[in-house]
Amino acid sequence: MAEDEEQKVRPFRVALEGSVRPGYEAQIVRGHSRPFALIGEWADGGALVGSEPVRVAAEDEDPFALAGNESDVSMPRVVTDDDSPEPFVGGGWFGYLGFGLGVPGETPTAQPPSPERLPRFSLAWYDHLLRLDRSGQWWFEALWTEARAKALEERLELLRKRLLDGAPPRRSFSTGPWRSDPWPQGHARAVQACRGRIAAGDLYQANVSLRLRSTLEGDPVDLFSQAAGALQPDRAAYLGDGQQAIASLSPELFLERRGNRVRSAPIKGTRPRPADDEAAVAARAELAGSGKDLAENTMIVDLVRNDLGRVCRSGSVEVTALAEPQAHPGVWHLVSEIEGELKPGVDDADLLAATFPPGSVTGAPKLAAIETIAELESNARQAFTGAIGFASPCAGLELNVAIRTFEVSGEQVWLDAGGGIVADSDPEAEAEEAASKAKPLLDAIGATAAQAADPADAPAVRRLGPHASPRPDPAAGIFETLGVSDGRPVNLEDHLARLRASVSTLYDQSLPGELADRILSEVTDTEGDLRLRIDFVPGQRIEMTFSPLAGLLGPVRLAPVTVPGGLGAHKWRDRRLLDALAAAVAPAVPLLVDLDGYVLEAAWASVFAAGIDGGFATPPLDGRILPGVGRQRFVELAGRDGENVAERPVRLSELRTASQVLVVNSLRGYLPAEITS
User: Could you say which architecture CATH assigns to the domain 556-675?
Assistant: First the structure.
């Protein structure tokens, strides 16, 4: 058979017998490689289930281009005839696009640090799947090629047997108490800061979220099955990949493209939906009559209209529903719909370039909102507020907005929740709204919330200019500083270990093996006390510079400033945010504090409080602060001297009442400090 005949793609479909409990469709492919399940209104209603892809996108590929490139063999043209099945999905790219991808064509905005980490995107190409239609009939569908005929026949028989036997039963799982980061009062501070930016004219609206995190014992597919079965949202999605998984219970449609028609259904405006019918009707009426929520929804409708207008025929974009109250799991939402007709030649890559990330979970203007999100949130968004779904050569493009989404990595599990902030948003009410959105999901999996911390004082987040001061950009590189005394580097191995860890974590690279020898050679002929700076920038030669080490007299004056989530565990070359904070509090030194009022670190030193817990207390190495070499030396020496050092969260109020405050730095040693009012 000629090679082109072997590769020719034809739609293939066969009906299968069997049934699966609603919400449990993902169990059919339990234990398979890269399983997925889309349940609800996907592809005209029912479910799409698959596993064992024929290709997985590499991390250095452009995920947006993959969705639209029909000339590539990964998005083939399908040969159809009068007998071709309709409607039909057959296969395509399935997976997620993470929020951190940013706006296509724009430099991604640096995000806050986060202990949780997933790939920026995950896409795999499947040439077959199971489809449950709205009537309850199961189908095996495939993008059939003769080259894959034997493998597809084997998959058909395996999946046919799985359906006949019934999906494996759900197994038990459990999660620990769920802790909020920040706590509600800290989230209210972030909301208030966002309101300040809106009042100053920096933007009109931004979506600000918090994170709930816990630990998972068991398989995430069981968590998804229980939650999807209980809630039955419109756009549920499960994606599995080894130790990582996404379990989305989203009610929101981001994009649906069929042919040249595209539709989006943004959600803005929420109220809890009580179980009592009378109370539920009253809550619906309150939401429907809320001018604030209508304005919030209308702003996003205008943003989505503008996004779609960039790729749709002039005059074709129309609002087909505006702020309609709809019932969703545990809540009422205001839902709008916008439709349009794509211009000739526009493909899915162009459509995504014009619309991603979803406007309903960023804000307006979109780029200013993304900057504000990075400034005010305490954790980097992963899949959350990106999009999950598929791009198919037969069925078009369909993506949800990845809200109400559990994310899993190993034993870590987390859930983000938030809402759109406008000029008249009430900070406490916004914290309650975030909780009301998360509650149905936590209830569905039998979860419990950790006891909230007592409210604590924290400085208001400073507005340092019309644009949010950017978080450190990893692309700018990192650096290390150490002291040199009469030709000898001080604590060289400790500093190189920290630099080595950052280079590996951030850039998946290794330091040159001869770097230590090079440093020793450079410092041999130096005299007196010097400061050695080692700069590492990806793709460039490591640079070393010397400067005099000037003395510093104490006490150091520390001015508390709130930096949600801190700056992370790396010594960034990009110091724009720290420089802006330093200028705002000069001549004092910025003391970084989180939204919950807990101390992180000083701009250039670790912080210790004396007279607490029978000795010293210092913030823990939780990924939000630099693992200071001087800090570690202080802990070790104090231990040898019999001094107790507690590495635990330290409130700003504790620091203010401590018998002594020290700032510790490997270059400066230990210096007394005082806190400004």
Answer: Alpha-Beta Barrel (3.20)
